[in-house]
Specification:
Blueprint: H1 4-29, E1 43-47, E2 57-65, E3 75-83, E4 96-99, H2 111-117, E5 123-126, H3 141-152, E6 170-171, E7 179-180, H4 183-198, H5 208-222, E8 227-232, H6 236-245, E9 250-256, H7 265-279, H8 283-295, E10 298-303, E11 310-315, H9 317-327, H10 337-345, H11 353-365, H12 368-378, H13 394-406, H14 417-423, E12 428-433, H15 441-450, E13 454-459, H16 466-469, H17 471-482, E14 508-509, H18 512-518, H19 524-548, H20 562-584, E15 593-594, H21 598-616, H22 626-643
Parallel strand pairs: 4-5, 4-8, 8-9, 9-12, 12-13
Antiparallel strand pairs: 1-2, 2-3, 3-5, 6-7, 10-11, 14-15
Helix pairs in contact: 3-4, 4-13, 5-6, 6-14, 8-9, 8-10, 12-13, 19-20, 19-22, 20-21, 21-22
């Protein structure tokens, strides 16, 4: 790093003076915390990188006050990493600093991707305070346990079946309407809150204004004169605030999946999801899906991601709608949403398996303490939580309950974005995904128009986090940082979807395809059949050659090429199936099914089995000839009875 030890000494002296000045200002002048200028560079300390990083990367902690509005607040550690450009190009001396979304999404694992986007610039990634690569970490596994308890609760205790109105079972966020929730999550949320308080954590220090202050402090601590800011999803809010707090240090700003100040995430969640589904042409089928599962919830046997014991999840229509909303955040799942919704509307509950599996990962990977510290101070108090919103997304219900239980004071100025937006002088590029339900391009585009000098680009066929899903998006962002003032042609075609959507009829729906990708051993009957067919083909060809040479004789009336034709049909089945899946199918399709043409390839199994049977049951045939028949019958049962079922 640049003069870390010297910067650390300077920071200690300066921090003492700043604390005294801050105390005077706050006490006698009444300056609000969100308006504070952050003049003192914070210290840094080195540490080993917590995850695999590109070569040339060093990692450390930013030493920052837990609360900048409180004199002598304790010091916390905010993780960061710097990947130095080995051969900087002309004009690329200004680095890119990236902050992950969430709240609470890690930034460090994306360093490699960002290095590929900006190979000639230094890349800086900064974690959010309280996240897994910062200290303290506000993980709150208790809340994850409470959410699992909500999904595994008996029917009579589920809020969608029997609404409750007792104080112990009702969560209330701010002044919004009461929201029913399973009491288990409230108990666990309270347990997490008590534990964090016992550990000395002041949750009021974990909010958007403080996260923005960390970004400004890090630039000064590392010695950069200016840099480019890059935020995604939630982090577009602290990114915009950091640009307003540090105009001289901000060269350009990219806001990916921008969540503007006027947006109310909770109140808009259900309408935004409905609007996104309408773009896919699935409004009626989506409504049918929600109605079906609310009437007859789906039950899944799975493993508890917290305890690793076997449990049964019970998913209502509102739960399934939440899983679909989250699928639109996942680049691998966005293409299959139209066909997935259509299949679920017909009651094919097995198609939920990939969504349920990914849900388990999200429950354990998110730092719930940080997530709720931010949401309960900066978002929930400014939403109304209307009781008539449908579907009742599980995330909205849970967040309302937890924020009601935590009772954190709302931020003085909310997101403080209205003022921040007016103060940003640097060029701004806003990018949005056409199919993003969390940050719809319509609202992001309107917000961009209100920013002086900002440009907006919408990318077709993309959900949340454009840079993760679209090569065109990555190229557009890199080109903007190369020349923020340019208004020339786009670097690519944002109106061209990076991957085709899988619509009803494009796929033969079956949960078995996904099960086979998770457990390849399930493909054994088909693989064994193809191997036996290949051996049969080679043996038949050898026999034909030897017969042509006059070395063998064959009983009259039995075609000499019969084994060859049987083996050829079996090998053709394997080859055509592999080519169809790998060469023609959208990769995401395998999460819910296979290309429809594969069903016709089953006829090749029938042909191979029949021909092998004729050969096996001829007079004086060797016993080994029965093997292709048995493997063919097993493959037929596996193919039509399991794979395509």
């Amino acid at each position: 790093m640049r003069s870390w030890h010297g910067a650390a000494v300077t920071a200690l002296v300066t921090a003492l003076v700043t604390a005294l000045v801050t105390a005077f200002v706050l006490t006698f002048l009444g300056v609000p915390a969100t308006a504070q200028a952050i003049d003192a560079p914070a210290g840094v300390e080195e540490r080993p990188c917590p995850v695999a990083m590109p070569s040339g990367t060093t990692c450390g902690f930013l030493l920052a006050p837990e609360r900048r509005d409180v004199p002598n607040s304790r010091t916390i550690k905010v993780g960061f990493a710097v990947r130095r450009a080995t051969t900087p190009a002309d004009g690329s001396e200004d680095p890119v600093v990236f902050t992950g979304g969430g709240p609470g999404s890690p930034s460090s694992p994306l360093t490699g991707l960002l290095t590929g986007m900006f190979p000639d610039r230094d890349v800086v990634v900064i974690e959010q305070r309280g996240s897994r690569y910062s200290e303290p970490r506000l993980s709150c596994p208790e809340i994850a346990r409470g959410m699992v308890a909500t999904l595994t609760a008996p029917p009579k205790d589920r809020p969608n079946d029997t609404p409750k109105d007792t104080p112990e079972e009702t969560g209330k966020a701010g002044d919004g309407a009461a929201t029913e929730i399973h009491p288990g999550i409230l108990d666990e949320a309270e347990a997490c809150l008590v534990r964090l308080q016992r550990e000395g954590v002041d949750l009021r220090g974990y909010r958007t204004a403080e996260i923005a202050g960390d970004v400004v402090d890090l630039r000064r601590a590392l010695g950069y004169q200016r840099w480019n800011l890059f935020g995604v999803g939630y982090s577009t809010r602290p990114t915009l605030q950091a640009a307003a707090l540090d105009p001289d240090g901000t060269r350009a700003v990219v806001l990916d999946s921008f969540q503007p100040a006027e947006a109310k995430w909770y109140d808009d969640a259900a309408p935004n999801l409905a609007a996104t589904i309408a773009k896919l042409g699935g409004t009626a089928r989506f409504a049918a899906m929600v109605t079906r599962f609310n009437a007859a919830p789906a039950v899944f046997d799975t493993r508890d991601p917290i305890s690793d014991r076997r449990i049964s999840l019970r998913l209502t229509g509102d739960d399934v709608a939440t899983l679909v909303e989250e699928a639109l955040h996942d680049a691998d799942l966005v293409p299959i949403v139209p066909a997935l919704v259509d299949g679920l509307a017909d009651g094919r509950t097995g198609l939920l398996r990939p969504l349920v599996d990914r849900m388990s990962g999200r429950l354990t990977s998110r730092d719930w303490g940080l997530y709720y510290a931010v949401r309960c101070q900066d978002e929930a108090p400014f939403n109304d939580f209307p009781g008539d919103a449908r579907p009742r997304l599980s995330a909205v219900v849970a967040d309302a309950a937890v924020c009601g239980a935590w009772r954190l004071p709302p931020s003085r100025n909310g997101w403080a974005q209205q003022d921040a937006a007016a103060q940003v002088a640097a060029p701004v590029l806003v990018v949005g995904g056409q199919l993003d339900p969390a940050a719809p391009p319509e609202s992001a585009g309107r917000a961009a128009a209100a920013l002086s000098g900002a440009r907006f680009a919408e990318f077709a066929g993309v959900g949340h986090a454009v840079f993760l899903s679209s090569d065109c998006g990555r190229r557009t962002i890199a080109a903007f940082f190369d020349d923020p003032a340019s208004t020339g042609a786009a670097a690519c075609e944002p109106g061209k979807a990076p991957r085709p959507l899988v619509r009803p009829g494009d796929v033969l729906l079956t949960p078995s395809a996904y099960q086979a990708t998770v457990t390849p051993a399930l493909l054994a009957p088909g693989v064994v059949f193809v191997i036996v067919a290949a051996v049969q083909l080679l043996a038949g060809l050898v026999a034909l050659v030897r017969r042509a040479a006059g070395n063998t004789t064959r009983r009259r009336g039995t075609p000499a090429a019969l084994p060859v034709l049987a083996g050829l049909a079996g090998v053709a089945f394997g080859g055509l199936s592999a080519l169809n899946v790998s060469g023609r199918a959208e990769p995401a399709m395998l999460a819910i099914g296979v290309p429809p043409t594969i069903a016709w390839y089953g006829l090749l199994i029938v042909v191979a089995t029949v021909l092998s049977g004729i050969e096996a049951f001829r007079l004086h045939a060797r016993a080994v000839r029965i093997v292709p028949v048995l493997t063919g019958l097993a493959c037929l049962a596996w193919f039509y009875g399991w794979l395509l079922a």
